Amino acid sequence: MRMSMGMQARQLQTQKLAPRMIQSMEILQLPTMALQERVEQEMNENPLLEQQENDPLAPDELDEERDKDTRSENEKELVVDNDHDNQEDFERLQNMVSEMPSTFDDSFRRSAGAIADDGDRRHDLMANAVSRPESLNDFLLHQLAEMDIDDDIEQMAERIVSTLDARDGGYLRTPLADLLMSGHTEADIEKAERALKIVQSLEPTGIAARSLSECLLMQINPSFSHYEEMKTLVRDHIVDLAENRLPQIAKATNYSIDLIQTVRDELHGLNPKPGAAFMETYVPNVTPDIILEQDESGEYKVRLDDDRIPSLFISEYYRRRLQDPNATSEEREFIKNKINSAQWLIDSIEQRRSTLTKVSQAIVEHQKRFLDEGPEAIEPLKMQQIADKVGVHVTTVSRAVDDKWIQTPRGILPLKRFFVGGTQTEDGEDVAWDTIRIKLQELIDKEDKSDPHSDEKLVDELKAAGMTVARRTVTKYRKKMGIPSSRQRRDWSLAKKS
């Protein structure tokens, strides 16, 4: 093997994205609310950007005409050429002065309405802020504080409480010995056990259990009609109970199948995760980016709900300043750069509006049966199909639908909901996976519970309905739908009678 050092010339073809192209893709990917925040940020950073103050009492048609007047064709096409003297650009800037509203001062300042809007927005955010709910740890510590116990026991109990996690149901997963100092004695272990008993006596019942059996046993009390039977099943047969192996339990306990099922029904009333009630749940505030409406002929038409995005234009003051012979070269350079930045933002927002409208309309046209008839009528759809129809790259479609929501007659749905995979029937017809899942649920709902369908049987039933699906696919979707196996679905009382 020969090794040498030297310089070599090689020709390589690489693809790089310009910063402006990256910004354009970022603007496309933003949902409406995030785009509104982005525009406000850009306006704070770029003094050349101004927004058209719209009259909320004016009709939409007048707003559109005003937008056309204030955002003339010359302004849309304005691009500063840094390699020449920009004489044409200056002339266009001068011509645009007469087209701009005359209600602006010759200095950059925010309007009173914009300042008031900011104040109202901050007030709304403070007024609508969700108060932090009480955590599981705080709830338990408050109960401990009201108890009269020794300080060392209370400290150990607080240490135990600190390890409990609402997301894990409030179970104690850490061995008690690991919560003690190194070199602990048997007496320390006994104190830890006493502290654990105190914690387990707190509400909610079943907290700080070390296993599912212990959690359920802590909730079983003599008031239950089958108190002893419940304890026996939970303590000795919890796995067989979960796997629906009732005959094995009956053989080991001499309980009847009917009694075991009755006890199991009572156990279902217990809480296997008592700490989960304190888990904070995040419910996103969904605002639709697209509104879907039907015209008089019943055709679906999409409309962007982007009224909150202000109409932007370049400040009159800075256009005049650019033509001022007293302006320094540094000022001119600053204004040139800001003009480019402002114009690129304006163009990116316009491109986003156009792309999102075309992509949404194409999606709606493809999934018309879904909108008319419901989820069972949804058709297979890939992003590449929409990309080919609209004439853009598939990554553009991906960015356009990302985190976007559409308001339809069937509710507010994410745009990604309309993209589903599928398979082919024996006749070569495409069938969406959602349709198969609905059919699968229907078959299981109607099955004989004394002899429920195995996954192989479900494959045969789906094939008889014209849907060819592999067994592993049926198993996969059954589990994703939360449907137990055929053995777990079996009703042994019905099986015994048959």
Automatic annotation (TrEMBL):
<dbReference type="GO" id="GO:0006352">
    <property type="term" value="P:DNA-templated transcription initiation"/>
</dbReference>
<keyword id="KW-0548">Nucleotidyltransferase</keyword>
<dbReference type="GO" id="GO:0003677">
    <property type="term" value="F:DNA binding"/>
</dbReference>
<dbReference type="InterPro" id="IPR007634">
    <property type="entry name" value="RNA_pol_sigma_54_DNA-bd"/>
</dbReference>
<comment type="similarity">
    <text>Belongs to the sigma-54 factor family.</text>
</comment>
<dbReference type="Pfam" id="PF00309">
    <property type="entry name" value="Sigma54_AID"/>
</dbReference>
<dbReference type="GO" id="GO:0000428">
    <property type="term" value="C:DNA-directed RNA polymerase complex"/>
</dbReference>
<dbReference type="GO" id="GO:0001216">
    <property type="term" value="F:DNA-binding transcription activator activity"/>
</dbReference>
<keyword id="KW-0804">Transcription</keyword>
<dbReference type="InterPro" id="IPR000394">
    <property type="entry name" value="RNA_pol_sigma_54"/>
</dbReference>
<feature type="compositionally biased region" description="Basic and acidic residues">
    <location>
        <begin position="488"/>
        <end position="498"/>
    </location>
</feature>
<feature type="region of interest" description="Disordered">
    <location>
        <begin position="478"/>
        <end position="498"/>
    </location>
</feature>
<dbReference type="InterPro" id="IPR038709">
    <property type="entry name" value="RpoN_core-bd_sf"/>
</dbReference>
<dbReference type="InterPro" id="IPR007046">
    <property type="entry name" value="RNA_pol_sigma_54_core-bd"/>
</dbReference>
<feature type="domain" description="RNA polymerase sigma factor 54 DNA-binding">
    <location>
        <begin position="333"/>
        <end position="490"/>
    </location>
</feature>
<keyword id="KW-0808">Transferase</keyword>
<keyword id="KW-0731">Sigma factor</keyword>
<dbReference type="GO" id="GO:0016779">
    <property type="term" value="F:nucleotidyltransferase activity"/>
</dbReference>
<keyword id="KW-0805">Transcription regulation</keyword>
<keyword id="KW-0238">DNA-binding</keyword>
<dbReference type="Pfam" id="PF04963">
    <property type="entry name" value="Sigma54_CBD"/>
</dbReference>
<feature type="compositionally biased region" description="Basic and acidic residues">
    <location>
        <begin position="65"/>
        <end position="87"/>
    </location>
</feature>
<feature type="region of interest" description="Disordered">
    <location>
        <begin position="45"/>
        <end position="87"/>
    </location>
</feature>
<keyword id="KW-0240">DNA-directed RNA polymerase</keyword>
<protein>
    <submittedName>
        <fullName>RNA polymerase sigma-54 factor</fullName>
    </submittedName>
</protein>
<feature type="domain" description="RNA polymerase sigma factor 54 core-binding">
    <location>
        <begin position="127"/>
        <end position="318"/>
    </location>
</feature>
<dbReference type="GO" id="GO:0016987">
    <property type="term" value="F:sigma factor activity"/>
</dbReference>
<dbReference type="Pfam" id="PF04552">
    <property type="entry name" value="Sigma54_DBD"/>
</dbReference>
